[in-house]
Design a protein that fits this description.
Length: about 325
């Protein structure tokens, strides 16, 4: 089975054209165990918050956890659809969980896994990325290009992709067996684990591999800088990969990434599904990310002015990042 793409063409002027589209846009702005890994030397205590709280922290930061719990609850209150959240702040030990183990379709956030698996495979074989792989990786991450994702999905192969997922301890991830990478099943807990492997030294991904993928995630085009970056101060290193898919009627809207610099070091995985529209899901993700970015930056030195709102280009509004053949919708 083959993936039906959204019609993004390969042309030399793609990068300038994409930026022009972004500038002209008029759209609205929008896990290792069941409980996640415990950090050495940190005793987790429940935050002083209502029973519905989703955030915990060491006693020193209990008030921050309580505030973030309340703000996340406010961000998702009354929203239709489903939300899965995992947030981890290395500096304070604040961790937020909400439905983190619930599987939903990945859409394009799986592209971060595809590249990590490619880098892992090249490490194990002591070989370097080919010039074609480098070109396709940049298109896949920076522009969320579907042709590039399909090429690298096939280049790595299902067996090697699965080997990486196992080595990464992403125990709840199920890669799609039929070639529909956007229909792989993921959880917020596993996506946070992937971001952790990309941002922290570990035995799975070499420092050079981590730096390569993070550099691409730090240079996504303007219209991809929604979700995790929402409300983050300018001047920080922001790494993000987003995904959107009508599945097949209601929308999956996902955002994963990390923010570092000027005393910040935190990660997010926000997955939403059964959204009544694309923009509705984006708004939900944005609200959650804005709450986290506001609270986790409180009291820290200013890194600059807030990031400007981002917009989806008009031609990408309502267009999923992977379209399924109509004949296969009956099986979903």
């Amino acid at each position: 089975m083959s993936v039906v793409k959204t019609g993004m063409r390969r042309v030399p002027a793609r990068r300038s054209a994409a930026l022009a589209l972004a500038a002209a846009s008029l759209a609205a702005t929008a896990a290792l165990t069941a409980g996640g890994p415990a950090r050495a030397g940190v005793t987790q205590t429940a935050a002083a918050a209502p029973s519905s709280a989703v955030c915990t922290a060491p006693a020193k930061y209990a008030s921050l956890a309580a505030r973030l719990s309340a703000d996340i609850a406010a961000a998702i209150r009354g929203r239709s659809g489903h939300v899965a959240i995992r947030v981890e702040d290395v500096r304070t030990g604040v961790e937020c969980r909400d439905n983190e183990g619930h599987r939903s379709h990945s859409a394009s956030v799986v592209k971060a896994t595809i590249l990590a698996a490619l880098l892992y495979w090249r490490q194990r074989t002591h070989t370097s990325l080919t010039s074609t792989e480098k070109r396709e990786a940049a298109l896949m991450i920076e522009y969320s290009d579907n042709d590039a994702a399909t090429y690298l999905w096939n280049d790595v192969g299902h067996a090697r992709l699965s080997q990486f997922v196992k080595a990464a301890a992403m125990t709840e991830t199920e890669l799609n067996p039929g070639g529909y990478w956007g229909l792989s099943e993921i959880t917020a807990r596993d996506e946070l684990q992937l971001i952790r492997l990309l941002t922290e030294r570990n035995s799975v991904l070499a420092d050079s591999s981590r730096a390569y993928e993070l550099s691409l995630m730090n240079h996504v085009v303007a219209y991809e800088r929604w979700g995790v970056p929402a409300g983050a101060p300018r001047g920080l290193a922001v790494y993000v990969k987003n995904g959107w898919l009508n599945d097949p009627v209601l929308w999956v809207i996902n955002s994963i990434g990390a923010i570092e610099g000027h005393g910040r070091d935190y990660k997010m995985a926000i997955l939403t599904y059964d959204n009544p529209s694309e923009q509705y899901g984006i708004n939900t993700v944005q609200a959650i990310a804005e709450a986290a970015n506001r609270d986790l930056n409180a009291g820290l030195p200013a890194a600059g002015t807030p990031l400007a709102p981002t917009r989806l280009p008009r031609l990408r509004q309502g267009q999923p990042d992977e379209t399924l053949p109509k004949a296969d919708l009956r099986s979903l």
